[in-house]
Amino acid sequence: MSKPSLKILLCEPRGFCAGVDRAIQIVEFALKKYGAPVYVRHEIVHNRHVVEDLEAKGTIFVNELDEIPDSHAPVIFSAHGVPKSIPEQAKRRNLFFLDATCPLVSKVHIEAQRNHEAGLEILLIGHADHPEVIGTIGQLPDGAVKLIETAEDAGNFKPKSPDKIAYVTQTTLSVDDTREIVDILKRRFPAIIGPHKSDICYATTNRQSAVRKIASDCNGFLVVGSPNSSNSNRLVEVARRAGCTKAFLVQDAKDIPWHELKDVTTLGLTAGASAPESLVQDIIEAFSDRYETSVDVVATAKENIAFKVPRELQDVAAE
Q: Which residues make beta-bridge pairs with 135?
């Protein structure tokens, strides 16, 4: 029997961003330079496959520093950033630590700190309990940051002084949702100060734009990413809003919802910023087993950004 035809529209850019690349390199270079074990506080990035691969190489992931025995082994902080209390705790224990915080997250930390020191009340647009949000709130004293999660929050917020407010955002938010929240805040508080350049990172913006471009041409859409990946979940939302109601988040080819996609003729495919390209190719292969597939790459931006690893690892990076 001949197989049905399927067109796959493959988003570009997709997958690893510069911050994720850097974070994974930091762990791999630390293993190469110092040997196993290397400890990492929280998942280095939100992807189970990445975590399991690094575990197989000798990485030990912990939730908190008190799980790490006294040792000279490197301790690495994840790409999402950490509260100031974490490096302070590491210093008290004389732990050797390396910070894999994405430089674009560090930019948000600096903005929040600068505006706080200028006497402004700080609003953080983001999702409660996300590691990046916890890290950003933890840059300032308790109670100094007010979290705004929704447009309703923005409408109900009561400032201490309407003329002394600043906002920052989580880097992996929906561009559309964030714009709505910011518009409400600016309408209510014309003097509010925002970042000179959007805090939503280039990779999040680019991946959402690519999905938005093709979603209305698709009757099925898959985003490769982990359930706890903010930017991956936002890509699913973007696809649905842009016209493809059958959009799903999958961790790998084993998660493909075949029944939901049984009538698909054009499939959109992308990957969140912490998902390896190998998982995308596995999914294309899985569809090729069932369909006569053609793959069209739809490119909407070119990314050539790279971030340096910490100076302690630059000798290994240069090899």
A: none
- Give per-residue pLDDT as tens, 221-254: 999 999 999 999 999 999 999 999 999 999 999 9
Catalytic residues: 132
pLDDT in tens, 175-216: 999 999 999 999 999 999 999 889 999 999 999 999 999 999
- We report the CATH number of the domain holding residue 173 as 3.40.1010.20
Same domain membership, residue 179 and residue 243? no
* 29 and 90 together in one domain: yes
Query: Beta strand pairing status for 292-299 and 5-12?
Result: parallel
Angle at 177 between CA 172 and CA 179, to 5 degrees: 95
Question: Does 232 lie in the same domain as 164?
Answer: no
Residue 97 pairs in a beta bridge with 75
Q: Which residue matches tokens 């709130």?
A: 137
The count of structural domains within the chain is 3
How far is it, in rounded angstroms, from Cα 289 to Cα 284?
9
Look at residue 194 and give its three-state secondary structure. coil
Domain that holds residue 180: 115-188
